[in-house]
Write a structure and sequence with these properties.
By secondary structure, this protein is of the alpha/beta class. The chain is built from 17 helices and eleven strands.
C-alpha cells in the first residue's frame, strides 16, 4: 500500500543571501520517522465541511483524570449541567471501575434523574471480564448509554505490556466484544450502544487495526440492538494531521457493516495539531469527535471542542452547540478544572478579540465603522476579526488595547465606541503621539477611562498653571456664513481677544449622544510652524465653541506644542 512518491524528500534549495543553518546536536538518531500509509487516491482533500459531526465531551473522564486535583461530585455535576446546557447529546461520564468517585458519580446522575432523555451517557471499560460486568451494572436505570470496551493494539504495547502476538490481541478484543454483547440483555429498558476502541490506534499497523475492528463488528452485527460504533483514538499524536486523515479514510472505506457503524475519532494534541487532525478526519469519513472543552487532557491535552465548533461557526456552519456565552462557559470550566484557559486560546482567550498593533487597530476601526454605517447587516467582513465578538457574548470594548504599539485608528475607535466622539483625522494623529509618550512613560497599557482622562487633560483642560494668567473669557460672537464654517470667524475673533496670535485652521462642531450627550467642538490653531488642538464640550453649541477657544488660548501659552503635521 506504499506510495513511493510520499517518501520523496521535499527540500527546496536555499535562496541566495539567506542565513545558513548548521546541524544541531539533537540526538535525532534515537527516533524513527513515521511510515506513511500511502493513499494515492485519497478523496478527503477535495471535501468541505457542511455540517458538524456528533460531538462527545470527555471532560468528565479523560479530562478529569488529567487534573492535579480531580473534580469532586459537586464540580462534576456543574460540568455535566454546563455540557447539557450547551447542547451536547453525548457525554462520557466516567470510568466506573477506575475509582469509587467515578462509579458514585454515574450512579448520582442516574438516581437523581439528571440525564435528559435525548442525552447518551458514555462509560468505558478495559477488556477484563469483571471490569466490563461492573461497568454495565453501574448503568442500570439509565435510558440511553454507550459502553466502550478497549484494549491496547500497538506493536510496542503488544510486545512490552501484553506480551502477546497479533492473534492473542485479536482474541482478547473478541472476548471483550462477546461479553459486552451478552451483557446488553442485562439492561432492560436501556438503549445500549456498543463501541470498540483499539487503544493507540495511531501506533498500530493500519491493516491490523482494521482487521480487529472488522472482527468485532462481524461479531456484534447479527445481535446488536442499536448502531455499532468504532472509536479510533490518537492516544498519542505521532504523525501530521494529513496522515491521520489518510488512515481514517482507509478505515472508513474498508470498515465492515459501514452503513450501520458510526465511526468516531478521539484526537490528542501531542504535536499541537489535534484540531487539524480532527477536522481532516471528519472530511475523511469520521462522523463523531470526542474531545474536551478548551482541550484539557493528558500531556498536551485532548482536542478542543470549542475550537472545532467555533471554526465551523466562522464558516457559516451550525456548530450544533450553544456558544453564545463563551465567557460564562470558560469561567465554569476554569472553576471545575482549577486550571486557567490561556489568554490567547483560540476563540475564547482574554486577548483573542484584542489588538495592540496600530495598523490592526486602524483596520478594525474602519471595518466596524463601515458595518455600522451599513446598519449592521450582511455578511461579516471586518479585518482581523473572523467572527463578530457579540455572537459569542463578547463586546467591542476590549477589542483594542492602547499601548506603545497602538496607532490612531485604535485610539479613535475607543473614543468613538466609548464616548461617541468622531475625531478629525489630524487630531487622531496628534492624540496618538500623546498616548505613545504616555505609555512609554508609564510602561504599560492605557484603559478606556485612562484614555479619556488624558484626552480631557490635553485638549479640554490644559494645565493653566504652566501658562500666564488669562483675563475672563468674553462671550463668543454670533455665527455667520455657511453652515460648515459659521463658527470660524467668531472663534478667530475670540482667540484674538484672549491674546493668542494663532490662526484657526479647522473647526468642527458635532452633536454626540450617549455618555457625553451634548455638543463637542474640535478646534485646530496654527501659530507659525506649530499646530495644536483644543476641545470644548457643553449642551449649548455656542458655549462648546467658546470653551474650545479658551482651551486653545491656554494651550498656545504652554512652553511645548507639537509641530504641525
Amino acid at each position: 500500500m506504499e506510495d513511493s512518491t510520499v517518501h520523496a524528500r521535499h527540500t527546496a534549495p536555499l535562496l541566495p543571501h539567506t542565513g545558513v543553518q548548521r546541524p544541531s546536536r539533537m540526538p535525532t538518531g534515537k527516533y524513527r520517522p513515521y511510515r506513511p500509509l500511502g493513499l494515492p487516491d485519497r478523496t478527503w482533500p477535495d471535501r468541505v465541511a457542511h455540517q458538524a459531526p456528533l460531538w462527545c465531551s470527555v471532560d468528565l473522564r479523560d479530562g478529569n483524570q488529567a487534573l492535579i486535583e480531580p473534580m469532586n461530585v459537586e464540580r462534576k455535576r456543574r460540568m455535566f449541567d454546563l455540557l447539557v446546557s450547551m447542547g451536547f447529546k453525548e457525554i462520557e461520564v466516567g470510568y466506573p471501575t477506575a475509582s469509587r468517585d467515578d462509579h458514585a458519580f454515574v450512579r448520582h446522575l442516574i438516581e437523581d434523574d439528571a440525564i435528559p432523555e435525548d442525552v447518551v451517557i458514555q462509560v468505558m471499560s478495559p477488556i477484563r471480564e469483571d471490569f466490563i460486568e461492573r461497568t454495565v451494572r453501574c448503568l442500570r436505570g439509565t435510558r440511553r448509554a454507550c459502553l466502550q470496551v478497549f484494549n491496547p493494539t500497538s506493536e510496542a504495547q503488544r510486545r512490552l505490556v501484553l506480551r502477546a502476538d497479533r492473534g492473542a490481541t485479536l482474541a482478547l478484543a473478541l472476548d471483550g466484544a462477546r461479553q459486552a454483547l451478552r451483557l446488553q440483555d442485562s439492561l432492560p429498558g436501556t438503549e445500549l450502544h456498543l463501541q470498540y476502541a483499539p487503544e493507540s490506534y495511531t501506533q498500530t499497523e493500519p491493516d491490523y487495526a482494521l482487521e480487529i475492528c472488522n472482527a468485532v463488528l462481524d461479531l456484534w452485527a447479527p445481535r446488536a440492538d442499536h448502531t455499532l460504533r468504532i472509536n479510533l483514538p490518537a492516544t498519542v499524536e505521532v504523525f501530521p494531521p494529513q496522515e491521520f486523515a489518510d488512515r481514517i479514510e482507509y478505515v472508513s472505506r474498508h470498515l465492515a457493516h459501514r452503513d450501520r457503524t458510526l465511526l468516531s475519532v478521539h484526537p490528542h494534541n501531542d504535536r499541537g495539531s489535534g484540531v487539524a487532525a480532527a477536522e481532516m478526519a471528519v472530511l475523511a469519513g469520521a462522523q463523531r469527535v470526542e474531545g474536551t472543552l478548551f482541550g484539557n487532557g493528558e500531556r498536551t491535552g485532548n482536542v478542543c471542542l470549542i475550537t472545532l465548533a467555533m471554526n465551523l461557526f466562522s464558516q457559516g456552519v451550525d456548530p450544533m452547540l450553544d456558544l453564545g456565552a463563551i465567557d460564562r462557559i470558560r469561567r465554569v470550566v476554569e472553576d471545575c478544572n482549577q486550571m486557567p484557559v490561556p489568554a490567547r486560546h483560540p476563540w475564547a482567550g482574554d486577548f483573542v478579540y484584542t489588538s495592540f498593533a496600530g495598523t490592526h487597530q486602524d483596520a478594525i476601526s474602519k471595518g466596524l465603522l463601515a458595518r455600522q454605517k451599513a446598519g449592521d447587516r450582511g455578511v461579516w467582513d471586518v479585518p482581523y476579526l473572523p467572527v463578530d465578538p457579540r455572537d459569542i457574548g463578547r463586546d467591542y470594548q476590549a477589542l483594542i488595547r492602547i499601548n506603545t504599539q497602538s496607532g490612531k485608528g485604535g485610539i479613535a475607535h475607543l473614543l468613538r465606541s466609548e464616548y461617541g466622539l468622531e475625531l478629525p483625522r489630524r487630531l487622531q494623529i496628534d492624540f496618538a503621539a500623546v498616548m505613545q509618550q504616555r505609555c512609554e512613560r508609564t510602561g504599560g497599557e492605557a484603559s478606556a477611562p485612562q484614555l479619556w482622562l488624558t484626552f480631557e487633560e490635553t485638549y479640554a483642560l490644559p494645565r493653566a498653571a504652566d501658562a500666564p494668567a488669562h483675563p475672563p473669557v468674553p462671550p463668543i460672537g454670533e455665527p455667520t456664513g455657511a453652515a460648515a464654517d459659521r463658527w470660524r470667524a467668531p472663534a478667530q475673533d475670540l482667540l484674538g481677544a484672549l491674546g493668542a496670535t494663532g490662526q484657526v485652521r479647522h473647526l468642527q462642531v458635532d452633536r454626540v449622544s450617549g455618555r457625553l450627550n451634548g455638543i463637542v467642538a474640535y478646534l485646530e490653531v496654527v501659530v507659525g510652524d506649530r499646530a495644536f488642538w483644543a476641545v470644548g464640550r457643553h449642551p449649548e453649541e455656542s458655549e462648546a465653541v467658546r470653551r474650545a477657544v479658551r482651551s486653545a488660548a491656554r494651550r498656545a501659552a504652554l512652553p511645548r506644542t507639537p509641530v504641525a503635521p
